[in-house]
Amino acid sequence: MKAMMDRQEFEAALRQIGAERYHHLHPFQKLLQDGQLTKVQVQAWALNRYYYQSQIPVKDASILARLQTTALRRGWRQRIIDHDGQEASDGQPAQRGGIEKWIALADGVGLDRDYVESGEGILPATRFAVDAYVHFVREKSLLEAIASSLTELFSPTVIGIRSKGMLAHYDFISQETLAYFDKRPVQAKRDSDFALAYCLDNARRPEDQRAVMDALRFKCEVLWAQLDALYFSYVEPAMTPPDAWRPGIGMKADAP
């Protein structure tokens, strides 16, 4: 790409990246939403995905520190509140954050809270991919860091399909277990609108547009790599690395 794309062409190119590379196409994702995984495999997904969830406010705080206007900081700060939650104050009720809701999801599938929060048993490839994402956001330009969040453009529809499929196919999954996803489509739409507008406004040269597209591709690879790790460790062929979680480890005391 040498010529500058207009705003519509640029947005279309970004959306095409999602259509081709977003992890809704991954075999593990399809097995998950179609009810083709065992409870053990769903537990492995819940545990490993927690590490990703736990690091989202870390990367968002890195971006927040680099934003130069009050309006931008206010807009981005809400992401951290969404994931970390907020204590009750001034007559406002406490807000349970996404991390707490994900712990509840892990609890709902039979995993022990302390074990989940400890980070033990996380697949090496999961840790490597998530840490690479955090480092990317810290080290790249602000435009690239924000662009890496554009995968949220594609998540609302996928969340609905995943939640509906899991509720339909797994008798150990309830609506309460999946409470994390209740607000995510609305939050993701709000956040992706913010990030997309920023990228469309601030990618003012062809090389800027290339950098934004490359950042989005990178983030798609981060999400894809996490599902690769789960598939090859817990599905087929099952090659679980040393020290990674195995069935029976880190279970709730009352888990069946």
Automatic annotation (TrEMBL):
Coiled coil: none annotated. Its EC number is 1.3.3.11. It comes from Aurantimonas aggregata. Ring cyclization and eight-electron oxidation of 3a-(2-amino-2-carboxyethyl)-4,5-dioxo-4,5,6,7,8,9-hexahydroquinoline-7,9-dicarboxylic-acid to PQQ. Pathway: Cofactor biosynthesis; pyrroloquinoline quinone biosynthesis. Residues 12-228 form the Thiaminase-2/PQQC domain. It comes from the Bacteria. Belongs to the PqqC family. GO terms for biological process: pyrroloquinoline quinone biosynthetic process. It catalyses: 6-(2-amino-2-carboxyethyl)-7,8-dioxo-1,2,3,4,7,8-hexahydroquinoline-2,4-dicarboxylate + 3 O2 = pyrroloquinoline quinone + 2 H2O2 + 2 H2O + H(+). One of its GO terms (molecular function) is pyrroloquinoline-quinone synthase activity. This is Pyrroloquinoline-quinone synthase. Keywords: Oxidoreductase, PQQ biosynthesis. SUPFAM superfamilies: Heme oxygenase-like. The gene is pqqC. Pfam families: TENA_THI-4. InterPro entries: Haem_Oase-like_multi-hlx, PqqC, PqqC-like, Thiaminase-2/PQQC.
